[in-house]
Amino acid sequence: HCAAIPETLFESELFGHEKGAFTNAFQRKIGKFELAGKGTIFLDEVSEIPLSMQTKLLRFLEEKKFTRLGGNEIIESEARIISASSKDLKEEVKKGRFRDDLYYRLGVVPIRIPPLCERKEDIPLLVEFYFEYFRKKLGCEAKKISEKAMEVFVNYDWPGNVRELKNIIERILVLKGNKSIIEKEDLPEELFLKEAGKKASLKEKVEEYERELILDALRKSNWNKSEAARILKTTRRIISYKIKKLNIEEK
Questions:
Q1: Long-range Cβ pairs for the range 199-207 (8 Å, 24+)
Q2: What is the reported pLDDT for 203?
Q3: Fewer beta carbons under 10 A from the terminal one: N or C of the chain?
Q4: Mean pLDDT score across all residues of the chain
Q5: Total number of domains constituting the chain
Q6: 44 with 100, same domain?
Q7: Which of 106, 127, 152 is where one domain is finished?
Q8: Pick from 56, 54, 110, 51: which is nearest to 82 by CA?
Q9: 3 state DSSP class of 143
Q10: In which band, very low, low, confident or very high, does the pLDDT at 205 lie, cut at 50, 70 and 90?
Q11: pTM value > 0.70
Q12: Do the Cβ atoms of 94 and 49 come closer than 8 Å?
């Protein structure tokens, strides 16, 4: 994942380095291209590669040769590269953040994967897959998702695509996994936003999370505020205040 590599370590990560190449380089390191041999390297979020490193990557793609940082030995590699980006690389080129020659060199066989909002038919399959995955991983009692709940998943626009869907499923099972069937009312409020795909502010997300925790504690305690406060390790006064502030309908 290119966005996770510090700019100063890019060359070392991809091409390796020799002992003493820089401070704390106490031994030789073999880079990803050398390790790959005749295999394949996947560069996720390739748009995040620094411009200075893009030049070196382009040279490698053209010559299939490189040297380790701090070394003189020329090393050949037949590694293939598959790259991906959540950003529009053409726009990044126009803005001067991505080299046009590297863009064309990488784009030999471009494949566009439509966002989740453009392939609604895939949503039930993904929901069922991640539901089963996290159900087993967390040891939940939940057996399935109701049809009405599935409709909510399908109607939401998923601006965060599959990563967002995966995280939502995990959150639901962490909070509601003790139920045999996940119903519509068990889903987080963000899935019901009128403007599907609208990004909630930090404050809204915190309040939504608080609301889910308090509702879960109230249900477990049969709406006994003192017991709910004990579950959440807070006071009854704070629970009462939050119920009013977050517009939680008391039962």
A1: 199/159, 207/246
A2: 72
A3: C
A4: 88
A5: 3
A6: yes
A7: 106
A8: 110
A9: coil
A10: confident
A11: no
A12: no
